[in-house]
Amino acid sequence: MSLTSDALLARLEAALGAARAAGAAEAEASWEGTRQGVLRFAASAPTQAMITDEGKLRIRVAVAGGRVGSALTGSLDDAALAHAARAAHALAAAAPAEPTWGGFAPRDPALAADADDGAAATRAAGPAERAALLAQMAEEARPHGLVLAGRLSTDAQTTAVATTAGARAVHHTTEASLTVIAHDDAASGYAAAVHGDLADLDAPALARSAVDGALRGRDATTVAPGAHDVLLSPWAVSELLEWIALASFGGPSVLDGTSLLAGRRGTPVTGPAITLVDDPAHAHPAALRRPFDAEGTRRQRAVLIDKGHAGDPVTDRASAARLGRPSTGHAPPLGEELWGGPFPSGLSLAAGDLDDAALLARLDTGLLVTRLHYVNGLDDPRRAVLTGMTRDGLLRVEHGRVVGAAHNLRFADAFTAAFERIDGVGRALTAVATHWTRGGRFLCPWLIVRGLTFTGSSR
Amino acid sequence: MRGAEASLDGITWYGAAVRVEDVVAAALDGVRRAPDVSYADARAVLAERETLTLRIEEAGGAPRLGAGGAERSEGISVRVLVGGAWGFAARPGITAASAAAAAADALAVARAGRSIAPPTLARTREEPGVGTWATPVVEDPFAVPIARKLADLGRPLAILGADLGGGARLLTAEARMLWRRDTSTFASTEGARTHQVRVAGGAGIKLIVEGHGRVVTRTWPMDLDGGVLGRGYEGVATLDLDVHAPRIRDEALALLTAPPCPAGRSTLILDTPQLALQIHESCGHPCEGDRALGEELSLAGGSFLAPDKLGKLTYGSRHVNLVADARVPGAVGTFGWDDEGVAARRTALISRGRFVGYLTGRDVAGRLGVPRSAGCMRAEHHARPPIIRMTNVSLDPDPQGAPSLDALIADTTDGILMTTNRSWSIDDLRLNFRFGCEAAWKIERGKRTQLLYAPFYTGRTPTFWAGCDAIAAPSAFQTWGFVSCGKGDPIQLMAVGHGCAPARFRDVEVGSSA
């Protein structure tokens, strides 16, 4: 829904009023709205094309004893707000007492009340612009007998929070993202990018990159499972880190003891090459610029792992209170609370000093992993045991040169240990949209890991 | 009690009586007169959700409320076909204005795509759906007081959250309940006109304990969604949470010192919660026609069940019969019509081990050259386009099979029994899989013996199903459901059902992630 900041804040005030009318002394109203344009394609032709306009408003109320109830509504009219407020109050009234309850977010003088870092080109892009970009990309693939599959989207997003404790904040932003696979029956290549500004997204260049990957992936041979040195792309690194973050980097997982950080603060949990930070002021031009979370808490810099040593998890207000510290401003997006809880949506892995040629030279002989598929990290989060498959380009490297392609392999390894075997980090960071978590954007370099365990093949 | 037929005229939306049919019709009026539009449909949806979580984080401690709450959203979407290009658009609210805006956007999107789309789309001809349908519900879960729901969760939680003793530390005990109701009105330019109310929900319990250097998770009937059924509140009692709570507590404690599952090749028996996941990942998804045509490559991947394999490929042993059926009573993938107005139906996917059918909608069926849609076009809510989804994909029991899990074990000389999924991973063609489970037991001379820690099994789909040499009888058949099956881009979460009886697989690679 396209609303001005003033109009949106007025509806949030109405939501707080509805909460008071339902009997709550304390309340929070939080909004996420997105106008999204999407073009999905396969065989270089559109398969799904859409414009959706949607939003969610969450009302949370607190009653005596720190009892908190929550309700979401997709509508901003008075009747919908009243219904949501009553539902939230009914849950709060029936809920057990919460002795650590610390109240809703207060006003934060350091937080801009109304921020807009969106890009005009992204907002203005319509279905014709998206179709034109697909036509340009298809021309990159056609001469090689390849076709394209993927997704191009342009989003305009607004988040806003108001609380009875005084918080008021609105943030407007934009996102343009593209994933593209070039393929024929024998091979595939992959490229992806995410930016705030559509003008920064060079779709034909990304298509060429995917085409190059597909051409390199032809005539694949079988590589035996076992321990292989690997050069992981930023896309592969991001998916590994996303699973580790889901399982271990939120406050609740430290509280319940399942996190790899639990009880290990300041002690080594990986090798020294790993420094993981969620920094809202990161200098990368495509870094996530989300200034506050769904509770209206300013997003703070959080150090999850510092040169291999365990740091502190990211938190929302509830998990922070139980850990006895302030919230880091990482409450999950509305409706995502059940899956992962607090999440470092702007996670970055510290860059190294190697350029592309140096990375290949350092690897010497091994496998270049373009992308991973269906990773899962639930088996043993304390050791970050992850398994998954390679896809869209597993390349054989010998003496620092790509010499051919390999059929996809399954890996299964404990990454707390595997990250002790890092032997090279790329100097460039690539922004990668998170796969499993809505709205996240990680910054990742290429990474050399020695002796990664592969257990099976797709052949 | 509400039956399978229900009149939904004059649905009440936020207390204001609105003629939803009129709004949907107005949305179609906005596009049907455009000369380049060959087909259009419109769908209004009221989606209601409720999730309650109670947790205990210290043995003997007081429960606290976890994540969850109520959710309610409504909106309308319009889908338009111009030449071979689809346009889809959605707006919040069920009003004439939102309908007109969605129609205009959908038309603009379709026209923009026409120049880069095929000139036409082959689509199957189907009888336009007309009528009403509702999930049979004895007790409306949205009318049950929250206090009663919390009490129903609190009883098994108290069992899980009691003092454990024996050097074990309770990390988390959890009981969760979820409910969903989707009220939808659909119409198309071909004359389809349906009203549906689909209800699903259920509950589950979970325990995480620490001791002897291990952290162990044990759940019933499964983690994440729990046991989800296409029933009303009466379904909760059938899950027997109070009965299973002491069992999973005892198993969790025993797993703290159990030996790791030995590595090697073994006969494997899967109980029904794990077999449901196996069916989902290695049969349901690869049978999706859009995957087979490469239309999901960018996210979910493709399928080894390529179109030239239809009717020819040996998927499994002669014991293996898998069907998709959207008419199974009490299952979460059951409905009257799919989200393009095609009546619910049963489609054979694997027949006596041979691959014979796809999950399809009208477009994909047309492109695959099969005569009719399998009625699988489903959307998560109003703001997402319908895509091909599983309905209830189930493994037929063997009428001559063992009457129970215990009887199947008794029929097995040596092997391993695994239960309850812990992790899942499968490649982009749905061939190479690896599934971790919460627990396993040795089977020795027809008896369940040693408990085993952190088991997994891995294999290739056709090889695994070719090794299926026994499926238990209908008396052991059970239908489970997942409400968080992710597919599409933007991602859509869908409720899908899977029925099965315990089954046995020969020569499977097993091991432990410990």
Task: Describe the fold and architecture.
The complex is a heterodimer of chains A (459) and B (514). In chain A, 24% of the residues lie in helices and 37% in strands. In chain A, a hairpin with a 7-residue loop joins strand 18 and strand 19 (441-444). In chain A, the strands form four sheets. In chain A, strands 1, 2, 3, 4, 5, 6 and 7 form a seven-stranded mixed β-sheet that branches. In chain A, strands 8-13-14-16-20 form a five-stranded mixed beta barrel. In chain A, strands 11-10-9-12 form a four-stranded antiparallel β-sheet, with no helix packed on it. Chain A has helices at residues 5-22, 78-94, 120-124, 127-141, 203-216, 234-248, 251-255, 317-323, 356-363, 415-418; strands spanning 26-42, 45-63, 67-73, 114-116, 147-163, 168-183, 188-195, 226-232, 276-278, 302-306, 309-310, 347-349, 366-380, 385-398, 401-406, 409-414, 422-425, 430-433, 441-444, 447-457. The model of chain A has no long low-confidence stretch (mean pLDDT 96). Chain A is globular, with a radius of gyration of 23 Å. With 514 residues, chain B is α+β, with helices and mostly antiparallel strands. In chain B, strands 3, 4, 5, 6, 7, 8, 9, 10 and 11 form a nine-stranded mixed β-sheet that branches. Chain B has a five-stranded mixed beta barrel with strand order 12-19-20-22-26. Chain B has a four-stranded antiparallel β-sheet with strand order 15-14-13-18. In chain B, strand 14 (346-351) and strand 15 (354-355) form a beta hairpin. In chain B, helix 1 (20-32) runs parallel beside helix 2 (96-113) and helix 3 (146-160) runs parallel beside helix 5. At the A-B interface, strand 1, strand 2, strand 3, helix 2 and helix 4 of A face strand 3, strand 4, strand 5, strand 6 and helix 2 of B. Strand 3 (67-73) of chain A pairs parallel with strand 5 of chain B.
